[in-house]
Every structure is written in C-alpha cells, then in structure tokens.
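Could you help me review a protein record that somebody else here produced? Do not assume that whoever made the record got everything right. The record follows directly below this note.
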Amino acid sequence: MTLKSKYKATMLDDVPNIFEAVFQCTLEMITKNFEDYPEHRLKFFSLLRAIATFCFPALIKLPSQQLKLVMDSIIWAFRHTERNIAETGLNLLLEMLKNFQQSAFCNQFFRSYFIQIEQEIFAVLTDTFHKPGFKLHVLVLQHLFCLVESGALTEPLWDTATVPYPYPNNAAFVREYTIKLLSSSFPNMTAAEVTQFVNGLYESRNDPSEFKKNIRDFLVQSKEFSAQDNKDLYAEEAAAQREQERQRMLSIPGLVAPNEIQDEMVDS
C-alpha cells in the first residue's frame, strides 16, 4: 500500500502487472476460509483500496472478468467476521461506488453490480454477526438509494430482455425489488410493514440521521435482532455523547486534571 500511496497516478500502467502477479493467487489463498493467512488478508484489501483511491483509471481499463474478481473480493471482504477486514471492504466499496458514479462507465458498472451490491449489503446488515459494520452498511445503502433517484443512471438496471414489465424508472424497479427481497428475508413481517420501511428509506435518503434511524428501527423490531444486545447499532451516537460529555468537563476549570488532558493528547 505504501508504494501505491506514494507514487499514485505514476503507477497506472503497472496496475495490470500487479494484478497479474499477486491478485488472483493471493485471492485463492485467502478465500478458502476466514482463518488462514491472516497476515495477508488486511494488506491485500488495503492494497485494493489504495489502487481504487489513487489509480482508479486503471480499474476502469481492466477486462470485465478481472473487474468481477475485484468486486467479488470486496464482497468477500465485507462478509468477513473480522472487523478490520469487513470495514476495509466496506470503505473500499464506497470508494468504488463514488468513483464509478462520476465516471463515463456509470451505467455499465451499476447495471452489472447494483442489485448484487444491494442484496449483499442487506445480507450482512441483517446478520447479527455483522452489527459492528452497521454505520458503513447504512452509508452504502444511502448511496444506492440516492443514486437511483438522482437521474445519474440513464439506462435500466433491470434486464429488459427477461423483464417484460416496463418500469417507469430505476427508482420504481429498485423499490419493488427491495420490497420483495426483504419480504422473503423477514417472513415474520407483513407486506405492509416492509413496504412502509422501504418507502421510508426513499423519503429519508437525503437525511443521513433519519435514514439510519429507519434502518435501525426496522432491525430492532425484527425477530432476529429483538432479543439481541444491539449496542453496536447505537455506537455512533454513544461516541458522540461521550465526546460531548468530555467537552463539557473540559469547559469547567479544574474539573479535569492537567495530566489527564496530556494523557488524552498522547493517546490521540
């Protein structure tokens, strides 16, 4: 990662060689299970993120099969139960979504991967083992819902050859797809409850805190999460509350000893 970050765009021409030399062989090593070669895992996905950040034009030039390997790798990463690897995969996914949205390949990329990404994110979001990734799951979904309403996608996300119904737009298609996806995932919830939730996501897509609240409320009322300790779903708010209390204490002269302030500065 250090080399990629240091030389940035000057290494664009070398990315295909890097992929050929290390990508597929490393991927085969680390995807057999979630335990072997722990020292390779995080560094492999950190390398991918550096390439996506600093050498994105090289990713666009990859053959479709190699790009599919990249996307499969990202999905495998955020499925991982190791928090650092899952978070690296989710942050990498966000980089890819933003970069492709701003590229000339926006339609082509999202036509290939939008539905798969949405499906996979909802899968980990609704899996209680992945609760620490809640904040990033929400950011990915918010990006997707904003995208379909933005008008940036000018071609259908559905397969026009196999779907006879002509949806009026991509937002209508994704709305119906999401309702069907969640209805099958949460059979204990009524169709009306699921539809209300999905409509709420569309309505709150431009309000990050309300969008997150809608998703959290939906999870908490589901059978899978109702009997769980859901503190990870409130981690961001808890951290903000702790910081607010710390600032309040620092504002009161003499309440916090100087050596404690110094220790905090060293820790940060």
